Protein 1
Amino acid sequence: MFTLTLVTPEKKMLTDVDVEEVVVPAFKGELTILPGHAPLMSTLGIGVLRYRVKGSSAFQSAAISWGYCEVNPRGVNILAETAEATDELDRERIEAARKKADEMLRSGKLTVDEIVKYQRKLRRAEIRLGMLNKH
Amino acid sequence: MPSLKDIRSRIASVKNTQQITRAMKMVSAAKLRRAQHNIVNMRPYANKILSVIADIAITHRVTHPLLSPSASPRKVLVVVVTSDRGLCGGFNANVNKFAERFHRENSSKYETLDILFIGRKGADYFRRRGLKGVDTITNLAREISYVLAASIAERLMKSYSEGGYDEIRLVYNEFKSAISQNLVCETLLPIDLSRATLGSQTDSKFSKDLLFEPPPEEIVDDLLHKHFAVQVYRCLSESVAAEHAARMTAMENATNNAKEMIGNLTLTYNKLRQASITKELIEICSGAEALKG
């Protein structure tokens, strides 16, 4: 058992929650952290963070976008740019965001920077929708 | 001499103004509370990022262009943070005056000294004085969100790397308390780690055999960009909190002034009323005297 802390610039989502297992969207793919993991430092991509609170068998999840995670003997610290728990997500807003990003990408008159921006937006929206559908 | 009716309408209009200023004070107080909350919430994130950068930079001797201060900066960008709306006392005037003086005194020292405005009031002030900024960012949403700050930070970072500036300074009001703001001129880029490194050298929890994924240089690069965004977010939040605090105080003063003015006007009104009653009585009396003959 170890602790999980999740901090964003706007709020402190989780503070020293006792967990048994954490799955983070590391930049090369998902990474599962179990008790006794070697000290690690990794950046995180856009994706879903899942964690199992001590004594329960179900995973709880939060959508995060860019962040970094630090594993030390005491626990896991995650700093994320944005983080939202499943019940905070608003399906209509996400679908609207997805549609807009999709349209912009199809319009074909974007600069390189804008293409990257809307691709990120599209990916974020799709991951969130996936999270809602599983729920 | 104003007539009784004039004074009555003056009193009514001052009362209206007082009501408005009082309402504005309440609104500012509520917004201030939220802005303060924002600042407090952001601190753990900001501290954590800084200490991690410092730790990695020390234990792995990472160097980065953003971390090396140039001894004699030649191209400087000054970012002037003001509010979009007025009626907040000396809040904007302080920033503008300082920025103007800074520009006057230092423009000969540097090769280029450009100004970038965040907030409408600063841009207006300098436009009247014939100084044009390289860019103006206005219409900030009422509340500064991290996403917004990050996009501004990205713009600044871009002009730092592309515009070839050696230094980016931010002039803004720091929130001290509800009644006092502190004018700050802070160098945001290049990033100065000396403050953070002092603290972390003693309690660094890092071991040398930490796993990195991706390699430390890339993590530091990423973290420095985020750190800069957080710093911009912090400065903007401070400025917003200071703005609400300044407006609250200004409106409080305005409400008190209105109260005093109403008092004075009421006094004049009563005196005038009494004088006119006395005058009428005298007229009646002297009329009666005359009839008695």
Protein 2
Amino acid sequence: MLPFDYVRAADVDEAVNLLAADPSASYLAGGTTQLDLMKDGVLGPERLVDITRLPLRGITRSDGALHVGALTTMEELAADSAVERALPIVRQALLLGASTQLRNMATVGGNLLQRARCRYFRDPTVPECNKRDPGSGCAAVEHSARMHAVLGVSEKCIAVHASDLAVALVALDATVHLQGIPGRRSVPLTQFYRESGASPDVENVLVHGELITGVTIPMPPAAAASHYLKVRDRASYEFALASAGVVLVTREGTVEQARVALGGVASKPWRCLEAEQILTGSPATEETFREAASASVQGAWTVPGTAFKVELAQRTLVRALRTVSGVTP
Amino acid sequence: MSVVETAPLVGAGIDRVDGALKTAGAAAYPSDVNVPGQVYGALVQSTVASGRIRSVDTLAAEAAPGVLRVITHHVTPRLPDGPMTALGASPPAPLQDDRILHHGQHVAMVVAETPEEAAAAARMVAVEYAADDALTGLGDARAELVENPWGLDSDRGSVAEALATADVKVSATYTTPDNTNNPLGLFATVAVWEGGKLTVHDTTQWPSMARATFAKVFGLPETSVRVLAPYVGGAFGNGLRVWPHVILTVLAARLVKRPVKVVLTRPQMFTSIGHRPSSVQHLTLGADRSGTLTAVEHRATSPVAMEDDDYEPVAASSAVSYACANVLTRDTQARLHIPDPTSMRAPAEAQGNFALESALDELAVALRLDPVELRLRNYAENHPGNGLPWTSKALKECYLAGAERFGWSRRDPEPRSMRDGDWLVGYGMAGVTYPWYAQPCNARATVRRDGSAFVRSAATDIGTGTYTVMTQVSADTLGIPLGRVRFDLGDSDMPAAPQAGGSGLTGALATAVRDACERVVQQVLDLVREDGESPLRGCRREEVTVVDGRLHRRDRPAEGESYADVLDRHGKEELTADGTSTPADPSTLGMAPAGAFGAKFVEVRVDADLGVVRVARVVSAIDGGRILNEKTARSQIIGGTVGGIGQALFEETATDRTGRIANATLGDYLVPVNADVGDMDVVFVGEPDRATPAGTKGVGEIGLVGIAAAVANAVHHATGKRVRSLPITLDDLL
């Protein structure tokens, strides 16, 4: 048996204290990834601190932003009227991101922290995984790698960050709010994640015990159009081979503002600032979109199984830009 | 030769008699079975593909909470192989020595009080291996090759001469990957020893074979073994053999003297119960300018496990699918360090048809001829091998009815010519000639004094509708209302039946059930032969009809009486008779026994930029002989079509060079979801088959075959790109 303690935290302070005091403890929210990984022997926390009763659930609106409690479920966020009206990119990312059953369990905070879907990371009988066991190597690079990442990766790890929601949120310049022993801090989501780089086991800036308490999503300008496009083999119930989240303000055929992010192809939700620079101030044309797409995949690192993703990511981004701008080739 | 009865081609599509039980969760699948005192087994599997076990350290596992026993090859007795069957023997017993023949091979079983304790302790078993270089690739030149494994290779005329003079030739290599059956129900076994008697609740498609196997392996008389499988949560061929872990479960129960239950995990479902093997196929066709085939050459290689057999004649059907004077087919198996390949819905046909029907499409393009027309020009009116007339063949009607329903005439033959916004639209089709397969079968029918009937056979219903269809056949033959007939199956104590497999069960079982029911009717007539009180006195069978439980004279319906009346008057509680069916003997039949035929028409949509492929609709026109239940047969075809879409677009078991399966979960191994299944149209054509009185031909597998080729052909029509390697994914089309 793999015994572990289970405690339910009464408030945020208690939760943070419980975790900070125990290096082998983990938070438990929806559990849709965590429990699978425990059953498969990938994670072995000795204590689970259940945070599901903490008052971190719900959506409020102020100062042109949406404030989403970390324990709000994916389904609640997708069904929110403001999201439905003004944030199609978020709603689409959520609906394409998981089945209804999962959306009813999984939380927004948990979604942002979901672990890699790498077949080698998730099988402890494979010895080589730098994410699971730093320094042990990367079996994915050696073997079947079609699902893996091409951006922000190296021979040390090519695992993809599989969240759809996070792609939409980095495109929207969302901020995550954290609470830990030193206190509270807020981090732009674009600076929250780390590329796999030298330490694939470190995926974000959280220190042990720090809890995501909420996310602030700035509302895009009223004139903006947004879209999330997810490309995959089957029509549903699969992680993205490539995805693109775009927010675009165009006026009289010219792009005034652009926010662009890619998913399914990178070790973290991939914001494409170079592509945005190319788009901003340029005519909303197929040519501009292709130029931006080309910039979005600069620095790609591929293995034979993943090479197609460099092309697929660009075509996905071009299609998403076409969709929001109404431009046809 | 029996005379085929005049009856409608398509029987009433009544609802499944077990539908309410299943939807309410009240049907006990093998994993739902629990018996008092049971304990649980968990398997330890090899992490190398070839070599020897250097050591097994079981101390930690044995000391773990709840553990009763750790079984390794050190403590396992030598066990004999199971008996030969129509499909070959089951794999050898497990844990017989220290050799490793594939990644995922069982190397130990932990038995514990709870499943969680067993699984946790199984992780503590430390196995050290002396690994050897494993042969895992089909192209590995070191692999031992088995030529013509089933004696089914064909040589007709001279292919070399015909190809030398052909006006048009197409020649290409097609590949299909390993596929994993993946029934939804996890395979489960509960083994119970009571003295010298063994009862096994098991996920099997063949209880009679399983009983014979347990008897032989454990040295018991068959009468001391009972195998139960009243409900099976799908199998697709996985349940046709007694797998090593099942033997191990029975052995464990004997060693710990408690009932033992083992439920495979999903990853174990990929390595423990067989899979459809990959194939490399070289296909060459020659034709004259009019489109008449002058040569068919089909060479296929598939892998097989190191010490196992698998019936998988991939190329064989190409010899009998079209009228062609010059034919050569070759099947070769390469022995590799891989988990056992085995039948997966439409074994061999699923792979071979993809190559043959893709090549036909390539020939149609080369000849600038319509693909349907090309097939009609090479139609085999008689069996191309022996020249005999088929017992039934309505493939032409399949082509014509399918094309009509699909709207094939709207197809512009030019690739990339049809478009709907971002989507390139493609129409593709394929023909199917499915092999005939038949086995002997037995059934028992009882009519009771209350007028109800109980009919049974040791067959299985793996979701196909056997319960329902055989209830119908029994009710029809006995003339007793459906609601008063119970058909039971899935118990090896019942009369022996063949497997639910090879598309052969319905024909064999329906014939045996009819025979048993007819014999009961005859018993009634025998009983009243000299009964002065009976209006049926002295009647011969053909003079009598049974309706609503009442037998009456055909010519004078007013003269008759009910089963209940007869049994009551004669003081009988019941009348019981056994029935049998024997397969037609092709050597004396004077005809070539036919399997099902089909034509598949598919519309695909391919995103012009993104390469995403979606199947928008499928028309399946099927000659399945007489269809006993329109609804369950249609469901079979639709289910097969979904499997075909999986084979065409999604399914690929990915194996690392180490021999480890890398995508052994349902999140990573993709099968179609509802959103991938477009409009499914099914039409049944043809006539009752002349090989059996029931007139049926099996429809369990033909639904799958032809879909992969039709999809590939449609993708070519949509995009101009010919994809010869399955599955077809967007990276092929960028």
